[in-house]
Every structure is written in structure tokens, then in C-alpha cells.
Amino acid sequence: MTMDQKALQKEKERLQEVMQLLVKQIDLLEQTTGIRGHEVRELKTHFWDDMSVNLTNDTETMETFSSIQQEARLLSEREKSYRLAAERLQMLVRLEQSPYFGRIDFVEEGEAEAEAEAEQIYIGLASLMNEDGSRFYIYDWRAPISSMFYDDSPGPASYQPPEGARIAGEMTLKRQYVIREGELQHVFDTDLTIGDSLLQQALSDSSSEQMKSIVATIQREQNQMIRNDQVDVFIVQGGAGSGKTSAALQRVAYLLYKHRNRMTADQIVLFSPNPLFSQYVSHVLPELGEANMRQMIFQELTEEALGRFYTVEDLYDQTERLYTSRNADWKQAQKTAIQWKASAAYFEWLDQYIRSCAEQAGMIFRPVTFRGRVLITAEQMTEAYYGFPSDTPIDRKNVLMKKWLHKQLDQAEKEQRKKKWVQDAMEWVDDEVYQRVYQRVQKKGGFQAESFDDDQQVRKELKKWIVNSKFRKLRAFVDRDRFLDDEAMFLQFLRQRPPFWEDENEIDLLRWNEMTEESCRLIGEGRLLAEDASPYLYMMEGLRGFSRVDGSIHYVLIDEAQDYTPFQYAYIRHRFPRAKLTILGDIHQGIYAHNESADSFHTVPKWLHAQRDERLSFKMSYRSTAPILDFAQSLLPEEQRSIPFDRSGPMPVLIEAHDEDEAFDALQALVREQVNSNRIGIICKTMENSRELYQKLQQAAIQIGVEPEDIQLVVKDTQRLSGRMVVLPAYLSKGIEFESVVLWQVDGGHYDETDRRLFYMAATRAMHQLQMIYAKSAGLPSWWNEIDSDLYTRAEGRSTEDRSSSFEGRNDENQSSSRTAFDKRGDRVE
Ligand SMILES: Nc1ncnc2c1ncn2[C@@H]1O[C@H](COP(=O)(O)OP(=O)(O)OP(=O)(O)O)[C@@H](O)[C@H]1O
């Protein structure tokens, strides 16, 4: 909607006014931070100057201590006030670039007649008031009143204030701004929730190494997720590119604002799939003027508990293990086992095992041994454990058990003091120890007792000291729960015959036994398969009553949640007992063996013990152009597809080469053409394929016209995207995006029947351009004919010489019109 000149002039004037106010406030704050910074430095430099340290007696020591405390308190207050001023200054500098991006005019119900003009609410990254605090020039986007900007179009509108009933009224205007470096570049009124044109612009920008903030264009459904703070467990299902991660980060910023007086960023945890993703999203919150939340990768929790004892396989290595398995039968059996080990039934079975071990029988203990002899036998421990009332909670039993063990050790210590080895050891005690023991006895007043011989008293203490120091290891063995034989208990569990087996699983028991023995053998060698790791962790913690607790965390967000198993959800619940959880995922991106057939998040609230849960489904998708999303989604059930945001672009292209050599020629020509304008993601199916292709590209770098370092291979530990051409396996491309994607080797030899989801996920990494290459000799995947041929174009892979002409015009947006040029088999019909 165009604006009249008068209104535009007014906007320009207002922007001037705001800019002047900002300059003034920045000046002031610069002075304040300068002064406060100086004060802090001075305080630190002269901290001890006026302090008289006197430790001669208790009273003086107390006084010294109290004046140190006072000085330290003063320093910490000054530091805090300096930090707050510096943060505000940073925010004002940010506002100086772009003070606001939206405006709504709102007339509160009941005020319409009395007030001639509606209140103008300008919305930006942070609030700005005049000096005396009487007028808001800018409202923070997270303020309750700002929610109308995202939720409503002009007309009746309402918002929920922090307290009291909802406030309703009439929105008489909605306006959006693009302000760069303090200059008004674009302003327009809109009838929509958020004007399409700004979103168009945001989405057509090139990709970057970092995810961007979406604050100016948050969509209504995303805003619902960002601001919902009522429920324990909030589950968001959204297709690829629907903005789950983007909205999740905005949500963190919102929560930090809403609970700013009682929560800090390190009390929020985001679970992300890998370091590359963690780094990719790590700039959004600082861009919004907030500190980053904590990021965790579930594997780190497994490593924390089990890494000392085992090499723990992760999901990526598990996936490669399956991809590279040459025996189809064995591979299928492994997949079935992996699925079974991530199922609800298996979870319940293990849960039951933990309970029955704790309450009835099955606990296995490690005996406590000393100098090659058993001090406390496993049988004695079993007897003690089951001697506690059977309804004692597990964590309590664990505490009681430790107490009992320490008592046994006390007794054993006494007995050991009489042994000959102690006598012998006394001969070797060095002077320093002797002196210490001597002084201790003296302090206790031992030498005043008339009936004792001094030397005897010291010798007695020395014996105590010797045995006690040797027993320290045993005490630690008890305190660290090492008396529980987790490994034996897990093996015992694995070797049980699974319930419901024959009815529900295609895998026969013989095979199952073989695989169980394989798991057990590996455990014996100190290696834990990924499918065993989470159950093991859950059992281990369960047997201790989940004592590892992080009660300070208020919110946990789990991204790529479709990849989590019941064990992981349940563990997260126990680990962060006070946290509200936000679960974000797309069941169609379940690409791992354990979730390739999962079709909902239905049971998640159960694992999370949710009192109240809510679900939200994102309908729209933003990352990929409509032709790319339509193409990729054709493999999904129709009713579960997202609506692509209306953004055109070239049709996906399938390049058909005769053989692998020609396919590589085609790839070289294609990247040569694009590499200077776009970052290209070349997605292979496996790590093995990626390494192989990376080597070939390195050798061909000069020919392609790039430096070898422009080509990057992403491995599971990669921290950041740095190359202009990035080669990576599909499973590591989760959550990230590229302007242009090439799917390499999309033939039936590489993508089998179960790889539809992997293909969908990989294809939806493309923002603007998607090309796929395969060698005809290998054929297309079995499911390819389910894709409507109108949704992509085919091109012949040609020899290197005529390659450049062959790909000319591929960037052309009109290419979509060429789709009728090929029929379903790829023959020309014109
Ligand atoms: N409201 C919005 N305004 C501007 N850009 C948006 C908006 N929502 C999403 N996007 C953009 O769409 C792209 C995809 O967003 P995001 O990665 O958050 O989606 P996702 O649902 O997590 O995707 P996936 O499940 O495929 O990883 C990003 O480039 C993001 O900036």
C-alpha cells in the first residue's frame, strides 16, 4: 500500500527525532560507562590499600574478613552497574542502525470516542524512552502490546497484559519499515499479519554462515510458539524450513525478556544435533542483544556418564555402520534391533527391569576388596540392599546403601589397624607425616591424659592415619557408586528374552541372540553401540534414582526432536526436573534407523511426565522456493505437506549422466558456473561418498577455477562452514541451508527404498536452487516414479567440452517454464 507524501514526511521527521534522541542517550551512556569503568578499575587497583589486615586474634580476623567482604560487595555492585550500562550502550548503538521495523496504531476499547488519535506504537529490538521516562518512542518487540503486530491485521485486535484481563480494541494502522544505518529505505502500510514484501526480501537474501534473526517478520503461527509460556511441554511439528529453529531462538529471547528479573541465559538449554549446528545458530541471540543460552548435544551427556568406561558410538557412526553394511539380511536385522531398542515397549521393559531389580532381585554388586582380599562380599551387599524396606525409593536406597558400606569400612578400618602390614608401614612413615600426627595428638590434649604413654598415643594415631589413607580409594569407590556393577546388570538385561517378541517383530530370536551377543562382546571390549548407549545411561542413572540433577534450568528446548528416543526424553526430564520443555521437530526428517518409520510425537509427553502439554503445527514453509519445496514434498503424504511461501525460482534439475565419470564432469561444470555467486552445498549420501568426492574435487580444483581451500569437507566435528563449496553427508546437513544444493549420486544404488526421508531432508536444504546428478547406468531409486515429472526438469550430462553451453541459463528464473519440454521418461515432447 503506498503512503501519501504527508505521512511519509511525518515518518521521516519522527525518525530524525528518534535518531537525535539516540545520539543524545548514547553520548550520555558513553560518559556513564567511562566513569563506571574507571571506578571499577580504581577499586580493583586499590582494593587492599585502605584495608588493614589483622589476623592476630578472632575478633581482629572477623573484622578484617568483614571489611574485605564489604569492599568486595562494593566492587561487585559497581561491576554490575558498569555491565548494565555497557549492555544498554551496545543496544542503543544497534538501535542507531535500525531503531524500529514496525508500527501499529491502536485504540483501546472504550477510549475510541474520547480519544481523537490512536496510540502509535513503534516496535524495535529494544525499548526507548525519553529522558524523563514519560514517553515510549520504541517498544521492545517482546512487550505484551507488541504481540498485536505479529498476531493481528488492521481491525479488531487484542493483547494480554502481564496482569489482568485481555485488552481489546481496534488496530487502525499497521506499518512496516526498512531502516538501514539510520536511513529510512522503505516504508509501507499493510493489511496482512506481516507484510509479504518484507518477508520476500528477507527470504531472497543470500544464505550466510550464520542463522539470522527473524524478528521483523515473525509469522503469526511462529509468534504463538514464541510467546507460549503456560505449558510444561510444548510440541511443535513443522515441515522442513518452517522456521522451527528460528522461532525457537526468538522464543529464548522472549523468555529472557519476560523473566529478566529471575532468569539468565545460562538457565536455558538448547539441545542441538552437532557442533556445526550449534555454531550456526549461535549468533542469533547476540544479534538480538541477549546472551546465548547453553547448548548441549545429547551425546555429551552420554559421554559424561559413560565416556570414562567405553568408547560410545554416536548416531552418525551408527548410520555409517548401516550404510556400509554389505550383508542385506544382517543390515535389516540390525535396523530392526535398533528400532526395537528405541521403542516404547523396550523403554517400559527396561524401566520395569530397574524397578524389579531395586525392589525384588537382580541387583549385582562389586565386592569391596583390599590388599587382594574381599572386605565386603557381593552377597553381603545384596543382603543389606534387600534388607531395606522394599518400598524405599531407589535414590533413598542408594543413600542407605552408601551409609551401610561406610559403616562396614569403619569396622574394617579398625580391624586393619591391628594387621602386620600397618606395623611395617609405620617404619616407613616420613618425618612430615609423623610431625603432623604428633601435633594432632598434642592439639587433642592426648599427652595430658595421665594413663597414656605419649609414644603409644602417637603410634595409635599413626596407625589410624596409615589405614585411613589407604582406605580413601575404597571410600571413593562407595561415594562414586562404583559398588553397583552397571555393566553386569546391563548385560543381564540384554540377555533376557524380550517380551512380546514373537508377535511384533520380523526378526527371529536366533538373529536377536546373535546381535545381543555382539552388543555384549563389544561392551566387553569397552565399546558401546549407539542403540545401547541411551538405554545403558538410563539404567545406570535409574539404579541411582537419577541423582544427576540440574535444578537451575528453567527451560529446555530440543531441536530436531524427531531423532530422540524415549530413553533420551526420559533422561532429560530427570536431569532437568524443573524445566519447561519445548520440543521442535519434523517427523518426516526422521532419517535414522530408529525413527525412519515414526509418524508422530504422540507419546513424547508421556516420557516427559507432562502435567500439561500443548501441540502446534506449523503450516507454512519458508526456506526453499515453491518449486523446490513442491518437488521435495511430493514424497510425503499429501495431507502432511507444508504450504510453500510464495517465492518463485528455477525448477529442480535432474542431470542424467551416462556413467560416474560423466556425472563428475557434469558436477564440475555446474559448480564452475555457480561457485562465484553462491555457496554450494554438495550433499552425498554417506561420509564415505563425501570423502571420495571431496578428494576428486580437490584434484580438480584448478580446473573448476577454485582454490583447494575453497572446498570444504564437513565431518561430524566440524565447527563452522568456511568453504564456498561444501561437501557433506546428508545426515550432517540437518538444520542448515545453502543457496544452492547439489545432490550427488541420487541413483538407486545409493538411495534405497528406506531413503525417501533422507532425500526429502537433503533436498530441502536448498533455498534457491536444487540440482541432482546421477549416472543412468545405476538407475533411479525405486520411489522416484512417485515424483510428478512436472515438478522438475531433466538435463543430459554431457562431455566437458560442451558443458558450459549445456548449463547456460540454469540460473534463469524462467526456467520453470521449460518444464513441459520433457515427459515423464525425460524424452522431449516438443
Ligand atoms: N518469519 C520468518 N521471517 C524470515 N525468515 C524466516 C521466517 N521463518 C523462517 N525463516 C527462514 O526460513 C529458513 C528456515 O528456517 P529454520 O531453519 O528455522 O526452519 P526449520 O523449521 O528449523 O527447518 P528444518 O527443520 O528444515 O531444519 C531460515 O533461512 C529462516 O531464516
Automatic annotation (TrEMBL):
Q: Which Gene3D superfamilies match?
A: P-loop containing nucleotide triphosphate hydrolases
Locations of Basic and acidic residues compositional bias? 795-813, 821-830
Query: Which InterPro entries does this chain map to?
Result: DNA_helicase_UvrD/REP, HelD_bacillota, P-loop_NTPase, UvrD-like_ATP-bd, UvrD-like_helicase_C
Q: Which domain of life is it from?
A: Bacteria
Pfam families from the UniProt entry: UvrD-helicase, UvrD_C_2
Cite the UvrD-like helicase ATP-binding domain residue spans from the record.
217-625
Q: Which residues form a coiled coil?
A: 5-32
* Span list, region Disordered: 795-830
Q: Which residues bind ATP?
A: 238-245
- Keywords in alphabetical order: ATP-binding, Coiled coil, Helicase, Hydrolase, Nucleotide-binding
What is the name listed in the Swiss-Prot or TrEMBL entry for this protein? Answer: RNA polymerase recycling motor HelD
Biological classification of the source:
Bacteria, Bacillati, Bacillota, Bacilli, Bacillales
